[in-house]
UniProtKB/TrEMBL annotation:
<keyword id="KW-0067">ATP-binding</keyword>
<keyword id="KW-0460">Magnesium</keyword>
<dbReference type="GO" id="GO:0005524">
    <property type="term" value="F:ATP binding"/>
</dbReference>
<keyword id="KW-0479">Metal-binding</keyword>
<dbReference type="Pfam" id="PF07714">
    <property type="entry name" value="PK_Tyr_Ser-Thr"/>
</dbReference>
<feature type="active site" description="Proton acceptor">
    <location>
        <position position="170"/>
    </location>
</feature>
<feature type="domain" description="Protein kinase">
    <location>
        <begin position="50"/>
        <end position="302"/>
    </location>
</feature>
<dbReference type="InterPro" id="IPR011009">
    <property type="entry name" value="Kinase-like_dom_sf"/>
</dbReference>
<dbReference type="GO" id="GO:0046872">
    <property type="term" value="F:metal ion binding"/>
</dbReference>
<dbReference type="InterPro" id="IPR000719">
    <property type="entry name" value="Prot_kinase_dom"/>
</dbReference>
<dbReference type="GO" id="GO:0004714">
    <property type="term" value="F:transmembrane receptor protein tyrosine kinase activity"/>
</dbReference>
<dbReference type="InterPro" id="IPR017441">
    <property type="entry name" value="Protein_kinase_ATP_BS"/>
</dbReference>
<protein>
    <recommendedName>
        <fullName>non-specific protein-tyrosine kinase</fullName>
        <ecNumber>2.7.10.2</ecNumber>
    </recommendedName>
</protein>
<feature type="binding site">
    <location>
        <position position="175"/>
    </location>
    <ligand>
        <name>Mg(2+)</name>
    </ligand>
</feature>
<dbReference type="GO" id="GO:0005886">
    <property type="term" value="C:plasma membrane"/>
</dbReference>
<dbReference type="InterPro" id="IPR020635">
    <property type="entry name" value="Tyr_kinase_cat_dom"/>
</dbReference>
<feature type="binding site">
    <location>
        <position position="82"/>
    </location>
    <ligand>
        <name>ATP</name>
    </ligand>
</feature>
Amino acid sequence: MEFDSLTDLVQHCLWHGQIGSCPISTPCPTTTTEVPQPHAEIWEISRDNIKLLKKIGQGNFGDVFKALWKDSVDVAVKTAKKQSMPDDQFLREADTMKNLQHRNIVQLLGVCTKEDPIYIITEFVCNGSLEHYLRHGEGKGLELAHLIDMGTQVAAGMEYLEDNNVIHRDLRSANVLVGERNLCKVADFGMARLESIYIATTSRAMPVRWTAIEAIDTQEFTSQSDVWSFGILMTEILTKGRLPYAGWDNPTVIAQVRRGIRMAPDEDWPEPLYEIIKRCWDREPQRRPTFKYLSRIFSGYFADSEYC
């Protein structure tokens, strides 16, 4: 998170009681534990150094496990059998992730490709998906300031992707992970592409409730379509994980959105906040805010009297 002045930084800390996700009353945590460091050419990790512990989820091509690297470091491992990967889609996710390094992006640590099943190894994020955290975890008790801070972190991660011409294409609370002190990290790059515009050519099902209307109609994805998805994700955050367009089936969602209908705010949402979110759903992609703008506007939300 960046600030224009020392005064802005102090005001943010006084409101949140923390810098980012680190309380200002205690030193930021440090670690001396060795972790596998990414390298531009060397990504292969010895399978002998990976010990699968327990299944924690289901990916697009196989299971996801909590594991240990060298019996000391917690990691997450996505698995897939080679025959389940049309056009090497599974390894394309690792290829997209390998050069991405940001506090709010899940870090790729390596791969195991010499045997079946193939592994993609990432950092382990302790509190699981944002969706589960909001519905069933400690997120149920969060106040508005903390919820907006989580949205700010997602926007910061997406700003980084935007700057690097990465289109996520599947941004939703199920694909954001939550670590200690509500640290949020964008994850699941199985549908991501390193391009400014991507035309989908596969028959893979779309997450309709989160997908921009032009992407549904034309299969064209851009950072602006990710912004649409971010607006939907913000409604998930503010409602503690409620399904977007609750009560509508997918065909109804598509029909209503084409007619210009957008989700209405809950009674307790501040009107200026909803107006920012609603701008993400503009029918014209170029009129939507950028992630750079969203990151800045949310990070300064409570410091700016205009939004209080």
